[in-house]
Every structure is written in C-alpha cells, then in structure tokens.
Amino acid sequence: MDLNELIKRYQEPIYWHIRRLVVSHEDARDLLQETFIQVFRSIDTLREAEALRSWIYRIATNLCYRHLSRRRETTCPDKDLSEWLLGQFEQTEYIDYEDRGAVLFQQAILHLSEHRRTIFTMRYYDELSYDEIATVMDSTNGAMRVAYHEAKQQITEFLKAHL
Amino acid sequence: MKEDTLWNSIGKQMPYRLPEGFFLEEEATLQQLAAKQSAMMQAEATRLAEPRPTTSTEAAPRALKIHLGWWIGGVAAVVALALITLLHFETTLQPLQSASESPLYAYHDAMTSDELDGWVEFYEADLFLAE
Q1: Which residue in A46, A144, A150, B45 has the most C-beta neighbors within 10 A?
Q2: A74 to chain B, minimum CA–CA distance in Å?
C-alpha cells in the first residue's frame, strides 16, 4: 500500500483513538507520529493486508499504554490511572467544557479501567468488529463482547447518577 | 430515563477539540516521515545488495584466522615428523639391541678356546700395528 494513502486513510481515526485514551492533544499528536513511524518501518512484514486496520490500532494502543504508564509513574505514582486521567481531563487544553453532556460522557468513560475503556472506545466510536478488537487486545471475540457490555453498563450507571 | 433514550441522546459526542488546520499540517509531517523512512529503507537495500569491501577491521580477524590455520598445520606437521622419526629409530635400534644374536657372536660361540685365543692375539697385534 502507498504510504501517503495509508496516512490519508488512518490519520484521523488513529488520532482520535489515541486522544480518547490519553486525553491531552499534545501527547496524542506525538503518539500519532510514533505510531506511523512504527507502521512505516514494519509494514512490509505484515502478512495479511486485511489485518492492517487492527494492526495499526494495536501499535497505537500499545504506545498509549506505555506512555500512560510512564507519565503516571513520573508525575503521581500513588494514583490510580483513571484518577490521574480525570485530573488531566480537568486541566488540559483543547477541551470544550461548555458541552456538559459530552464532558460527563467522557468522564464516565475515563472512570472505566484501561482495558474496558480501550475496548469501549474502539467499538462505540470506531465501530471495529469484535474480531478486530480481539486482535488488537490479543483476546477473544467473546471476552470483548462481555467487556463492552460491562463497560456500557458502568457508563449508564455513572450517567444516571450524575444527570 | 430509559437506557436506550439515554444512549441515543449521547450519540458520539466528545468534548475534545483541535487547533485549526491540525490534520492538514500533521498529514504533511507524516508524509515527510514516510519519505524519510522510504529513503532509509532504500539505502539499506542498496547497501545489502552491494558486495562488502573488506575493511581493515574486518581483515584483522581474517588474517588472524589464516595465521592460526598455518600455525596449527605447522604443529601438526612437526608432531607427525617426530612420530615418524621415533618409529624409524625403533626399527633401526632393534639390530643393536639384539647384537648378541648377530651371526658374528654365533661364530665366536662356536669357536674353541684355543681358536679364540689365537684370534684375540692376532687382533691385539693389529691394534699395536695401528698405533
């Protein structure tokens, strides 16, 4: 595949996937570039062209996890990751705090565990299939369905409690 | 509020915003990264395709291997020569070790005492003449 075509197709969805995981625009921008560098380096070794999307999501997700782990260790090692991200959400740039519904929804998502948050956002926003999500998360289709359902329940309870 | 209604009202909204023109700028940045990566891969492919010239650092270990080979060969040759020599001496020493079994001693054993005395006198005379 032509690399420019790859950029055009995946730049935006991957950016938003990363942004939903790391919250900060600057961090998302840096991680987007890192993701594509990894993709450019290894794309010739990809066995199945059909697996391209889940492969790129997997690279992006792993880079996000590594980034979040390092950030939390250096800034506040005693805090839970969700708690730390919620703190980031409240003070980072490029967030429209006027949109109360959207803010509450994102806060509900940020209360999820890292695992459930990743699965939920890939299914709900990016509409990846459960098989693709299972490839990204190195898990099974059934486990992804269960995790998504539980995440949706958790968000519903949060929203009902805060609306 | 019913769950379905709640989810329908939420939709896919997000409060996250971007600097204006971000994706256009970022696309250009990513294209530069792609071009750089392609150039690096091209250079690497060209380098691997060419026969490697022997550098001084590469020649040193190779020369060492050659010298080691000659040294081992030399030692092996010396050892072989020593063994051959040893075997040869073993075979040539045998007649001296068994000198008492030689034909001359057998002839002396067969001589009588008078004959032996006459032989010795003659031998001694020869000795004096030689001096």
Answers
A1: A144
A2: 25
